UniProtKB/TrEMBL annotation:
GO molecular function, a single term: transmembrane transporter activity
PROSITE patterns: MFS
Topology term for the membrane: Multi-pass membrane protein
UniProt-listed SUPFAM superfamilies: MFS general substrate transporter (SSF103473)
CC annotations in GO: plasma membrane
Location(s) in or outside the cell: Cell membrane
InterPro entries: MFS (IPR011701), MFS_dom (IPR020846), MFS_Efflux_Transporters (IPR050189), MFS_trans_sf (IPR036259), Tet-R_TetA/multi-R_MdtG-like (IPR001958)
The protein's name: Quinolone resistance protein
Origin organism lineage: Archaea, Methanobacteriati, Methanobacteriota, Thermococci, Thermococcales
Length: 390
């Protein structure tokens, strides 16, 4: 087996297990917070603290990766996630909301260390002319985690309690770290052959396609946070079991899994902006359907559209942002780009959480299409200004 192909897939599997751990927690963060007596605003805050810390730690992850330690960063990110899983379990056993908040923060730090290197290594190892496709495969591992993780977390919390569900993070993170080890042994530090005399010039990130993709991602993430944070809280308020939202996220994950590779390959052929725009339009349609049909089983139709649009847009937007960046700054570029996802998620959780205090959890759904519409407008302006290939 070609070592490059093997290494790509070992790192894909590490990405899968890392995000499997994260996604297994997502459907139970809000319900668990509510059992600890959290108000709607505090529910949003406990969900959002992960994004805050991830936002802060991603420049650290970017610098570490650009110094040639991308694989070590992926191992460390998994190990920090493992520790956060242990603390989740302890917080569930003790009922400590403060320990839970700290665990969420540590999980965010692990994301900031892991994700920039995970994304940039996909671009580093991609065959020539197939960067979008390779990002699509990596994105499929993310989607597969979102297919399996929420269902596992929801069912585990229903049948094993919150502590049993949180322990899944420990298992998945350990496995994720182990998949990076053979790649580290194979390539050492040769993955990033940066000349010592060549200084990284991060001002090169101020390119129109990179800036546009990043700002569009911010608004897209803000809209998606309304689904991941407040829809489970709404279902909890309506007395649905946690597995209902787990199933909803599983449907999103399946639809995203199906379209990820299509999105990546199409972006290689057509350019990233048209494919990104098609994905965002599909997501907006899904949000409109969710507003009309909020509860299951009818709401699952919206999950199909949201997931399908997500799968089309994400690899295309990643290609738009990172495809033409110099290798010497690619990890920092990945870091800054994904920071906009965290900033959007954080802003969405806090702002929508504040709005939910007066409008209720169902009332905030009406904001989601407009937020994604802003992202679509940014891409449209970039396209018609002539930056069609990113």
């Amino acid at each position: 087996m070609d070592n490059s192909f093997r290494n790509i897939w070992l790192l894909n599997l590490s990405t899968f297990f890392f995000f499997l751990g994260i996604s297994s927690v997502n459907p139970i963060v809000s319900p668990f917070s509510m059992t600890l007596g959290a108000s709607p605003f505090l529910v949003g805050t406990l969900a959002g603290v992960t994004s805050v810390v991830s936002l802060i730690s991603k420049p650290v992850g970017g610098l570490v990766g650009d110094r040639g330690y991308r694989l070590e960063a992926m191992i460390l990110g998994n190990l920090l996630s493992l520790v956060s899983g242990v603390l989740y379990v302890v917080s569930a056993l003790t009922g400590s909301i403060w320990l839970f908040a700290f665990s969420r923060a540590l999980h965010g730090f692990s994301m900031g260390i892991f994700f920039p290197s995970s994304l940039s290594t996909a671009v580093d190892l991609a065959p020539v002319g197939r960067v979008g496709e390779t990002l699509g495969w990596r994105g499929m591992m993310f989607s597969l985690g979102n297919i399996i993780g929420p269902a596992l977390g929801g069912y585990a919390s229903d049948y094993l309690g919150f502590a049993g569900a949180f322990f899944l993070v420990v298992i998945f993170s350990a496995v994720g770290a182990l998949f990076v080890v053979p790649v580290r042994k194979d390539v050492g530090r040769t993955l990033v052959p940066v000349e010592k005399s060549e200084e990284a010039n991060y001002s090169e990130l101020l390119r129109p396609y990179f800036v546009a993709a990043s700002v569009a991602l911010l608004f897209f993430a803000a809209s998606y946070s309304g689904v991941t944070t407040f829809l489970p809280a709404l279902y909890k308020e309506l007395s649905y079991p946690q597995r209902v939202f787990g199933t909803y996220m599983m449907v999103i994950g399946v639809a995203s899994f199906v379209t990820r590779l299509i999105g990546g390959r199409s972006a290689d052929r057509m350019g990233p902006i048209p494919v990104s725009a098609a994905g965002l339009l599909t997501v907006i349609t899904g949000y409109m359907l969710l507003i009309r049909f909020t509860t299951p089983p009818a709401s699952y139709a919206s999950a199909v559209l949201i997931g399908a649009g997500f799968g089309l847009a994400v690899p295309a937007m990643q290609l738009m942002a990172l495809g033409n960046l110099p290798q010497r700054i690619r990890t920092m570029g990945s870091s800054v780009y994904t920071m906009f996802f965290d900033l959007g998620t954080m802003g969405g959780q806090f702002a929508l959480g504040y709005a939910a205090e007066s409008l209720g959890y169902d009332g905030i759904l009406r904001f989601l299409p407009a937020l994604t519409g802003v992202a679509l407008l940014i891409l449209a302006v970039t396209y018609f200004e002539g930056d069609k290939n990113g």
